Structure formats: C-alpha cells, structure tokens
Structure prediction request, 125 residues.
Amino acid sequence: MWREFLRFANSGAVGTAAHYATLWGLVSIGSGPVGASALGAVVGAGVNYVLNYHWTFGSDLPHRKTLPRFLTIAVFSLALNTLLMALLTSGTKLHYLAAQVFATGACLILNYLASRFWAFQGNTR
Prediction:
C-alpha cells in the first residue's frame, strides 16, 4: 500500500501542477483566486483520473464504474478546496498560493483513501 500511495502522490503532483498552473494563469490575467482555484481543481482532477486509472491503481474496471465514483470524490474535494480557499484568502488574508498549498494538503489523504477503497476498489495492484 505504501508503494501505491507514492504512485498516488506522484500522480497527484502532476495533477496539482496542472491545477496550480491554471490557478496562477487565471489570477495573473485578473480572475479571482477562489474561482481560478476551482477551475484549476477541475483541470487537475482530469489529469488525476487518467493517471490513477492507468498507473496508480492499474484499473481493469470499466470507466462507467470508476468514473462516476471518481467524479463524486472530485466534487467533494472541489467543495472542500473552494471552502478552504474562500476562508483562507478572505478571512485570514493569506496569500492565495499559500492558501492553495494548505487546501491541497487537506484534500490529499481524503482523496487517496476514497480512491483506494471506493473508486478503484477491487482492482488495485
């Protein structure tokens, strides 16, 4: 399970890079950080699904089974991410990138456990 978690974290790093690049790009052209972060989370989730399905968990389940489960997890993660970004950037006036690092960390374990034991259950390496 440790090796699998490391694969998940590496896949997550690629998805997180896509998320942060989207966030930074949108904020740099004038978008608000909360909305930019939400869109970045959607981009990152797409990257994460592909990597987790094929590499992290080596799924052999059909996409019609894994994708709805993954999307459910992604929606909860998006809600948590957006809530934390709103609270941290407006409530505490934390810089948006620092707030995003905190929000990302808060979502990591939740996403791994839900992916491992529900979205891709029964087909892990």
User: Anything to note?
Assistant: Residues 2-119 form one domain. The chain is about 85% helix and 0% strand. Helices lie at 2-28, 33-56, 63-91, 96-119.
